[in-house]
């Protein structure tokens, strides 16, 4: 997977999802179809797709504080806007009742409001901006993330030793990313990420709901043991 055209690839769903059927016909069709198939969760580690929220925009921002309004998205539209998703950098993705199938981005770092006619084009926008090389969706269902610091006093525990040993001891289904690789393990519904850039942390994401046997527990225990061993 490489380059900025990866949206042409089939999206990988990191195991267990929970489709959400929403009968509200005011919602953009592309959003209803997406959550109706995949549920809520995180797209490519960038966009957090959530249930509609009609309070967060109005209660968080004043209508003249951040963005320039136009005929496409007016001050009145802002007062009626309903959030459907947000990004890791604070962009808001929303829609307005009475404007079917239009999605708007309220950027965190720009005064210009963007308009799209479907969710796929929103994805294209972020693929181009981030030059994403992987196409995946991480369902919110039962999601839990644990982060383990490698900072030991004034020095760092050697992440390379732990990383190399992990690759010898465990099998994984596929890798997302290179500099901060996420080793996806479908049977835990998640991944283990080694931060090979800053070399100061290891993270694990797993789904509790679909792991009645606590399969993920041995991976958590392994990380803790490996860190303790190299302190």
Description:
The protein is α+β, with helices and mostly antiparallel strands and 231 residues long. It has 2 domains: 10-137, no CATH class; 144-229, TATA-Binding Protein (2-Layer Sandwich). It contains 6 helices and 15 strands. A hairpin with a 5-residue loop joins β12 and β13 (182-185). The longest helix is centred in the C-terminal third of the chain and has 13 residues, at 217-229. The radius of gyration is 20 Å and the shape is elongated. The relative contact order is 0.16. The mean pLDDT is 91.
Write the layout of secondary structure elements.
Blueprint: E1 12-13, H1 29-38, E2 41-43, E3 47-53, H2 56-60, H3 75-80, E4 81-87, E5 92-96, E6 103-106, E7 114-116, H4 119-130, E8 136-139, E9 143-149, E10 151-152, E11 155-156, H5 159-169, E12 174-176, E13 182-185, E14 190-194, E15 201-207, H6 217-229
Parallel strand pairs: 1-8
Antiparallel strand pairs: 2-3, 2-8, 3-4, 4-5, 5-6, 6-7, 9-15, 10-11, 12-13, 13-14, 14-15
Shape: elongated
Number of helices: 6
Strand count, sense and barrel status of the largest sheet are:
8 strands, mixed
Residue fraction in strands: 25-35%
In which range does the helix fraction lie? 10-25%
Low-confidence stretches: none
Give the terminus-to-terminus CA distance.
36 Å
- Count of the domains: 2
Structural class: alpha+beta
Instruction: Please tell me the overall pLDDT.
Output: 91
Report Rg.
20 Å
> In order across it, which strands form the biggest sheet?
1-8-2-3-4-5-6-7
């Amino acid at each position: 997977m490489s380059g900025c055209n990866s949206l042409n690839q089939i999206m990988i769903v990191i195991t267990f999802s929970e489709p959400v059927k929403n009968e509200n016909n005011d919602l953009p069709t592309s959003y209803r179809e997406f959550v109706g198939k995949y549920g809520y969760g995180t797209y490519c580690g960038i966009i957090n797709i959530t249930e509609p929220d009609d309070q967060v925009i109005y209660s968080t921002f004043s209508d003249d504080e951040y963005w320039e309004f136009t005929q496409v998205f007016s001050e009145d539209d802002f007062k009626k806007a309903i959030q459907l998703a947000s990004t890791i950098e604070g962009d808001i993705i929303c829609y307005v009742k009475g404007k079917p199938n239009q999605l708007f981005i309220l950027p965190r770092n720009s005064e210009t409001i963007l308009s799209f006619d479907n969710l796929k084009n929103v994805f294209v926008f972020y693929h181009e901006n981030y030059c994403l090389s992987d196409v995946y969706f991480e369902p919110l269902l039962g999601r839990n993330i644990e982060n383990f610091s490698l900072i030991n006093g004034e020095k760092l525990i050697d992440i390379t030793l732990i990383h190399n040993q992990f690759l010898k001891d465990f099998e994984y289904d596929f890798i997302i990313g290179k500099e901060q690789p996420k080793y996806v393990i479908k049977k835990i519904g998640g991944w283990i990420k080694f931060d090979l850039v800053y070399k100061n942390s290891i993270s694990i994401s797993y789904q509790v709901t679909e792991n009645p046997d606590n399969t993920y527990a041995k991976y958590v225990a392994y990380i803790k043991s490996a860190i303790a061993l190299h302190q």
